[in-house]
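Researcher: Here's a chain I'd like modeled. Treat it as a single chain, no partners, no ligands.
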Amino acid sequence: MVTPRTVLRWHARLVARKWTHPHRGPGRPAKPETLRALVLRLARENDGWGYRRIHGELLSLGRKAAASTVWEILKQADIDPAPQRASRSWAKFLTAQAQGILAVDVFHVDTVFLRRLFVLFFVEHGSRRVHIAGVTCNVTAEWATQQARNPLMSLDDVRTAGIRYLIRDNAGYFTEGFDAVFTAVEARVVPILPGVPRMNAIAERWVGSCRREATDRILITGERHLRLVVDEYADHHNEHRPHRSLGQRCPDGVGAPEPPAVDASSRVIRRDRLGGLIHKYAQVA
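Model: Modeled as a single isolated chain. Structure tokens:
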């Protein structure tokens, strides 16, 4: 059935299989996956930590590992050393400084008679609270400077003193007089770069929400009507609308205790705003 050479080859394979020990690669044994995952987590959550700092944190957590092990894990994951990894992006800056940032912007609305109106508003980055400063058909430097005083008057002394930065675009009506209103309270004015609206992303996000949920769904007749609409929407935004960045709380609800638990027998009622365009829900016994 087979040749003698085939039988000898089979026998040689059996001998080799019996006496060949399992191959073991050179170097140390593989690191536990839990240790690797923890090192990578610490590196990603703390972009200023180098491998020595991460090694120290592991020791404080009772994880025994050499500093060279941490360095090797980071290298294998293509994670740069701390000086190169530390991000100085605009998003990081906004997050770190949120409580001291006030942003301003202007958006327009066209009325049913094709007249263009402009809304000047401010938004607090930390709380996402919106302040409607004014509505006009012609934005001038004098008008913008006068309206800039409105949000400062509506804030208490502590919140006014906490403003460290004002973010605005480079429109012509934001002049030195406008900036002086905020530099007087020791705030630094930060103009965004041309063509980079994401530098004022919080304000732009609110404009989008206001358009989608209110002004784009109503025929605006004039300045007074637009002011009523945006004021009503701003109140809804501040008092009820949940925000993911605030843990699904509204700006006025930040720091408030959790609502009490309710049972299935509780009834939910609806309250309408803007003629039923916006709905607000509440529990009743």
